[in-house]
Amino acid sequence: MFSDWPSELVPQQGWGDEAAISAFKDAVPWSVGRDFVAGTAKHLASSLGLTKPGPPIRSKIIHDKQLQVLMPALGYGLSFPLSEIDILRDCVSVYCEWLSALLPNPKSSVPAPILSDPNHYARIVINHFYYLFVPRGAQGPDVINRQAVLCHRVLRTLQNIAQNSPCLSEDTWQTLLLFLLHINSALLSPPTVKVSDESEGASTSSLSLNLTGDVAEDAGEQLCERVLSVLFETWLLACARCFPPPPLWNALRESCQRWRHRAGLIDQWNRINFALTGKLISFMYGPSFPEIKFSEDDLNIIPSTMSRDCIAQVWYRILHIIGNPVDLSRHTVISKTPAFLKYAISSELVIEPSQHPCLQMLPSIFLSAMKGVSGLVDAFLGVPNISLENLNQKGHHLSSSSSLSLSSEGRGEDSTRLLASGRAKCNSILHLFGPWLFEAALINCNMQASVGSQHKTDASGTAGSGSRRPVSGFGGESSRKSSDSSVPSEPQNDRLANLSPQHFQGGRAEALGALCRIFCSKKTGEEILPVYLARFYLALHQGLRQTDAIVTAHQEQASFTSNKYQGSKIGTCSETAASILVNGVDLFRLDLQGVVSLVPSVLGVLEGVLPEAEVHAPPHLPVPLLRRAATHVLLSILPLPLHFQGLQVKEVGCSSGERVVLSHLRPQLVNLLSNALQVETDPANTQMLLGGLLFCVQDAALCEVMDSISQHNFSADRDHNIMSSDSAHALFVRAIYLVCHRLISSWKSDVNVSLAGLELLSGLARLSIAEQDGLECKRAVKWLCDYIAYQCSRPARLHSKDLHSTIVAAFHCASVWLVAHPYLLHDKECLGTILEVIELGISGSKSQVKSSDAPRLKHEKELKPASMRVRDSAEALLSCVLSQVGTFPSVCGAESLSSLLDELTLLRHCNTCDVSDQLTRDAAVQHFRYFVAQNSIMLALLEQPLGNHQAFVSIPDPQPTVTALIRGPFGRVAWTLQLRHLARHKSSAKLYTVNPGRPLPMNDVGIKHNVNPKYFPDSVERIPLCKADKSIPSLESVMMVDEKSATEHDKLLQILDHQIAFEDNIRRQVEREITDYPDVETECVALPLCHEFQTARLLLSHFGFLSLDSLQESVESAVPSLVALDCSMAGFAKDLELLDTTNNRTIDTGHVFYVRAGQTNPHEILSNVVSSSSVHPHFLEFLGGLGWSVNVHQHPGWTGHVSTAFTVTTLPQDAPFDVNHGGSGFSGRTHVLYWSDALSEMAFVVPSPAPAQPNNQPAAANSVNMGIIIERSDGSGGGSGSEKSDSLHSYEVEVDQGSSISSHTSQMSFGHGNENRNRKFGRQTSALSCGDHKVYIVWLESFEDSYTFPANDLLSETITGRESTSWKDKEACIYIIFIHALTNGLFRIKLQGQNAKLSMAGPLIDGQVVSRRVLGTLVRQTALNMCRRKRLESDSYQPPHVRRKLRIQEMVQKYRYEMTEPEFYSHLFTSPLC
Question: For residue range 1324-1333, what is the model confidence (pLDDT) as tens digits?
Answer without folding.
Answer: 344 444 567 8
